[in-house]
Amino acid sequence: MPDLTLRDVSHRYGDRLAVDRVALTIAAGEIFCLLGPSGCGKSTTLRIAAGLEDLQQGEVCINGQRVAGTGLNLPTEARHVGMVFQDHALFPHLSVANNIAFGLSHLSTSERRKRAELWAGRVGLSGHLDVFPHRLSGGEQQRVALARALAPEPAVMLLDEPFSSLDNRLRDQIRDDTVAILKQAGTPTLLVTHDPEEAMRMADRIGIMQAGRLVQVDSPVGIYGQPTSLFAARFLSETNEIRGRVRSGLLETPLGSLSASHLADGTEALLLFRPEALAVEGAAGLDCEVVRARSLGPYRRVELRLAGAGETLLVARLAPGPLPEAGSRLRLALDLAACHIFPSS
Ligand code: ADP
Predict the structure, then answer these.
(1) How far is the CA of 39 from the centre of ligand 1 (A)?
(2) 120 and 40: one domain?
């Protein structure tokens, strides 16, 4: 079965450790996303898998075969990888058909044309085979880049921020189309992005990177719902954070006492929850004063001050409806199942 495996991969630029003992396996048909802030080592990891960066430590295997490790560093062209980058860099002097067929020089002219027609069809560009790149929209160009990378039937696909240059609506469509095409091809795919929404929309599994290290690997649902660190929780979305101290296994906060038996007594900790964990409730709800409310279309973003919690502001994401006035009061319920407690660092 095709797969991509990185074992104990580390990489330094001078004194700087850019990738720190990264290990991952991507199975056939799986889309694995490296997600993290700029500079955390995502691209370096991808470039090491591609052979664009010499391996310094660890091992890279494609389809169970070592392509880089001690004493071995196969060049990119011998690794059978397909790549798409942010600047899709099509050949401007080649038609769509010839761009797609670029990596197929081992085939006869008629086979090349046939394969280009097949892939142009798969990316929805059958009618554009003889068009030149400058006549295509950004999204169409990106589809050609994808088809060009997939046409040689690579063992692994490597995508580095491939959609960042596209505008929002188009980007969503291309993301979904790309997932469908990659799934149909069954090619293990490593996707690099700093955009949590892109990762959640496209990936089967997400690996969060922080300062060169892979700190959590899980499904999109798991990463979002069960972050294992403050860093991972904060990176995925806006959060509410309330400080408290653990006493007798409970974290005492202005929202009430929550079980924190995994932390030692006296620990300073943060109660963390996402804005959608708050919902409008009847008279029994938490008493909050509205500071500011905005409609963001699919939801209302409401900033609140909780009675008894000093100046701490909370953010709620509420279903669309009339905007509450600043200074008015709302009663809110907190979904305790969506709360996380981390030691405050
Ligand atoms: P990301 O893709 O997550 O933005 P990179 O892998 O590009 O991160 O970079 C990781 C770290 O390595 C950053 O601090 C970056 O400045 C540094 N770095 C990347 N490429 C080079 C290079 N060619 N020479 C020196 N430092 C580099």
Answers:
(1) 5
(2) yes
Other Cβ atoms closer than 10 A to 194: 18
Whole-angstrom distance, CA of residue 197 vs CA of residue 343: 27
The Å distance, Cα 45 to ligand 1 centre, comes to: 10
Nearby residues of 219 by Cβ (< 8 Å), 6 or more positions away: 204, 205, 206
Check whether residue 131 and residue 279 sit in a common domain. Answer: no
- 181 and 142 share a domain? yes
**Number of domains the chain contains:** 2
For tokens 């860093």, the residue is 231
For strand 286-295 and strand 278-280, is the pairing parallel, antiparallel, or unpaired?
unpaired
CA-nearest residue, atom 15 of ligand 1: 39
- 18 Cα–ligand 1 center, Å: 6
Q: Judge if 251 and 225 occupy the same domain.
A: no
104 with 130, same domain?
Answer: yes
pLDDT at 155 over 90: yes
Q: Which residues line ligand 1 (CB under 6 A)?
A: 13, 16, 18, 36, 38-44
pLDDT confidence tier of residue 325, bands split at 50, 70 and 90: very high
pLDDT (average), residues 201-208: 98
- For the full predicted model, state whether its pTM sits above 0.85: yes
For the segment 311-339, the average pLDDT, to the nearest whole number, is 93
CA of 79 to the centre of ligand 1 (A): 23
